[in-house]
Amino acid sequence: MSLVMMTGFRAGDIRELLDGLKKVPESSVYYHTHHFLKQHQFLVQEPPNDFAYWVTHILNESKIGERLTAVDAMRCGSLEDLRAALIASIEPYLAENSSPRKVPPQEEFHFMKSMLFIMKTPYTAMTLTEFLEGLKNVSIYSLYYHLFEARLRTPRRNNDFSLWLESVGETKIAGEVARLDPYSQTMEDVRGRIIRLVEQRLAGGA
Percent of the chain scored above 90 by pLDDT? Predict the structure, then answer.
């Protein structure tokens, strides 16, 4: 679970958005690039982060919006890497435009951040069979935590499932799970892919 809070930073144009991106805590960068993933059960044709959405639909700067949309979070090993990629998408535009467009006060971008609260589920795994059972029953919020939170908000730069699978000697499945792109599919799609990998292994697959 998470508690969403204001950071005190806001932006009325692209320059102020860039300044805010450089100053806000990592939890704000994370919130604006990941919070929608907790809810999305169907893939939609919208920009993949709040920055791209605001720049495209509110600021009406489609070219910068496209650059922000193109930032691949899967290739970013940390939140600071992700922040740097977002900043690099904006800076070239400001180098060429000294008077960026502003929005009315009621349409400013407000930087938010989230405080995370972690709770145990009833499921634990000591074996691959127990892992499969838990995987089939936990909520998408548990999947989200182990796939996204663990990779970006900790220094390990890998998801919890792959780390655990490696620890019990299942290095091949661990690698396949690590290569899954959870940004391009729903949580249920990801669950189904991992379940099939584990079931194949338990059935004697290589």
Answer: 63
CB < 8 Å & 24+ apart, contacts of 185-191: 185/43, 186/40, 186/41, 186/42, 186/43, 187/37, 187/40, 187/41, 187/140, 187/143, 187/144, 188/41, 188/140, 190/143, 190/147, 191/135, 191/136, 191/140, 191/143
pLDDT (tens digit, 9 = 90+) per residue, 168-206? Answer: 999 999 999 999 887 778 889 999 999 999 999 999 865
**0.85 surpassed by pTM:** no
For 123, the token pair is 């499921």
Confidence band (pLDDT; 50, 70, 90) for 24? Answer: very high
- Chain centroid to CA 43: 14
Torsions phi, psi for 109 (to 5 deg): -85, 125
Distances (CA, A) of 69 to 73, 90, 104: 10, 11, 23
Domain ranges of the chain: 2-116, 128-202
For the chain, percent of residues with pLDDT exceeding 70:
92
